[in-house]
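User: I'm writing a tutorial on reading structure tokens. Could you give me a worked example: one chain, its sequence, then its tokens, then a sentence or two explaining what the tokens reveal?
Assistant: Sure. Here is the example chain.
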Amino acid sequence: MAAMNWHTANRAAIAIAVVVMTTHAQSRTASMHKCEVVHGWPTLPPGEILGQTTSVGVDSKGAVFVFHRGDRTWVEPFPAEPIAVATIWVFDGKSGRFLRSWGAGKFIMPHGLTIDHEDNVWLTDVALQQVFKFAPDGRLLLSLGERGVPGADSAHFNYPTKVAVRPDGGFYVSDGYHNTRVVRFDAKGRFVSQWGAPGSGAGELNLPHGIALDRAGRVYVADRGNSRVQVFDSSGKFLADWHGPLVGRPYGVAVGPDGTIFTVDGGDQPKSPPDRGGATHLTQDGKVLERFGEFGNYDGQFRLAHDVAVGADGAVYIVDTWGQRVQKFVCKG
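And here are its predicted structure tokens:
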């Protein structure tokens, strides 16, 4: 019995040592990777404010596009009339200067925004049940889905959340609140394939809320309802599952120019206490480099972090839906 106690105590000591060593290693890693908010960014037009901000993207020139809902909030059933004011605002990434706006009278419940490699602007509207592709000058190039009609076939969506675009012009749609699937299309908008089914197992989804691609063609899905990021190959084969307290409940996911990954944690949306407010920076294999931000209204905090985008210079942009703002972060290390 004494020998057993000694071995038990020894194993406990080793376990404690491992935890301490791991904690120190994480602390050293965090100290080398630091993301800090840029105070005073952006500058809004005089006398105007953003509405509920839902998505953000950065073009090749460093312009930052923000999709917002004007004076509208999420109320179901959704209204029938489009938002009267401009729902896409564009800022200069470096200075934060307001550049232009557009999108008035076009959208009912804005959700996802993506800028592709040709600076086309992809948008999703959960009320319209549609996905749109606009040219950089605002011309409509493509629309998918039947206006206001939900469905689960190759021609319909049910609350589509976001788009990720391949180098060849093909694209993926995270679809979304009700269909719990990822749908792949070719560059002309023709259906190619789909994957995902309701559940929490490998490859199953529960509200795929954000989606992004890396240069190797891997597909990252913010599997919001399952509190994880799932990684797939280009054909939908399951590769990995990232989860844990530092990942939280990811609403959005983006890939930086160095291949590292950023997610934002929108939490469960309880009335109290708040369990949301962070962003996470991860390596390509899912190891946490840093968790930054917390719940609140100050610079660097979030009431409901909803989406994230990364510029070519590595600057990180995060929209805070309930805070009605977009913030810029610069990460060092």
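What the tokens reveal: The two ends are 51 Å apart (CA to CA). DSSP finds one helix and 24 strands in the chain.
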